[in-house]
Write a structure and sequence with these properties.
Elements (H helix, E strand, L loop, with lengths): L3 E4 L2 E4 L4 E7 L8 E7 L6 E6 L6 E3 L7 E6 L4 E6 L8 E8 L16 E2 L3 E6 L1
Parallel strand pairs: 2-11
Antiparallel strand pairs: 1-3, 3-8, 4-5, 4-9, 5-6, 7-8, 9-10, 9-11
Length: about 130
C-alpha cells in the first residue's frame, strides 16, 4: 500500500507561485507514474499533469501549459508541481495519484488508471 501525502498548498495572490509536493511512503514509488489532479466543489476532478516513472515524459492539460511544471526526485520519493502566474481559477484541492499499471503519460490523464491517491492540498488564489 503506497501512501501519498501532498503539501505546499496555501493562500496566494493572483500572479504568485506555489510549489506543491507529493511524497510517497515507499521506495517503489520510483516505479510509478504520477499524476496531479484538481477539484473544486461541485465539479468533477480535473486532470492537470502526469509524469512518467523516470521523469522523462510529461503530459500537461492545455489549461496549465506554460504555467505548471512537474518534476520528480525519486531519491526523495517526491514529485513536485511548480505553479507560476497563479489565477483565481486555479483555486482547488490538488491531488496526486500513483499508477502502477500504466506508463503512458497520455493515458495517465484518465483518473481510472490510478491505484493510490493522496488526501489533497488546498490552493486558494485571491484576485
Amino acid at each position: 500500500q503506497v501512501q501519498l501525502v501532498e503539501s505546499g498548498g496555501g493562500l496566494v495572490q493572483a500572479g504568485g507561485s506555489l510549489r506543491l509536493s507529493c511524497a510517497a511512503s515507499e521506495r517503489t514509488f520510483s516505479n510509478y507514474g504520477i499524476g496531479w489532479f484538481r477539484q473544486t466543489p461541485g465539479k468533477e476532478r480535473e486532470f492537470v499533469v502526469a509524469i512518467s516513472w523516470s521523469g522523462g515524459s510529461t503530459y500537461y492539460a492545455d489549461s496549465v501549459k506554460g504555467r505548471f511544471t512537474v518534476s520528480r526526485d525519486n531519491a526523495k520519493n517526491t514529485v513536485y508541481l511548480q505553479i507560476n502566474s497563479l489565477k483565481p481559477e486555479d483555486t482547488a484541492v490538488y491531488y496526486c495519484a500513483a499508477s502502477t499499471r500504466v506508463f503512458s503519460t497520455f493515458l495517465m490523464s484518465n483518473e481510472r488508471v490510478y491505484d493510490y491517491w493522496g488526501q489533497g492540498t488546498q490552493v486558494t488564489v485571491s484576485s
